[in-house]
Amino acid sequence: MLLITPLQRMLEDTSFSNVVSWGPQGDCFVVKDMNEFTKSILPRMFKHSNFASFVRQLNKYDFHKVKNTDDNQFGEHSWTFRHPDFHADRRDALENIKRKVPAARKSTGGGRSGNSPSPTASSTSVDALQLQLERMARQQDEMTAHIRNLENNYQNVLNEMVNFQRNMAQQDGLMQNLIQYFLQLENGGMVSS
Description:
Elements: H1 4-12, E1 20-22, E2 29-31, H2 34-46, H3 51-60, E3 64-66, E4 79-82, H4 119-192
Antiparallel strand pairs: 1-2, 2-4, 3-4
Helix pairs in contact: 3-4
């Protein structure tokens, strides 16, 4: 129950509902904004800020990540977790949620070899890889946005340079006209004296 109590408190705290909340039917919970969840809620509720570690803990209590559907109302980067006994309206079922006992490995040739990964380890690896892929996709989106911003800035600088050159050409023309005017005045003044 080490994980379940803070998880329950977190989902009951309405100030977190824009970042993490119960799903629409109350049979799962959704992390809507992983960055904000990692930055502000994990340290407050779970004393760390490592999302992959949080997911590993959920796996140890037999929670499963639910695949996002095409009509996912919380966004493509949201994470949905479900456990058969974890429901918004069934506090009595919480006592059924227990940490999984690691399966004993068989050292004889009759079972799995001692070095092959367990289903939990491979699902944790898949979750970690999925987390890394999502992080990389977010970073790529951020870099793309940054490049667009740089392109806009570059275009603005070019526009300012063109305007500056126009102004310089106008000022140069004005100076030429003034020089011509003063030369004519001077030449006209010499003729009349």
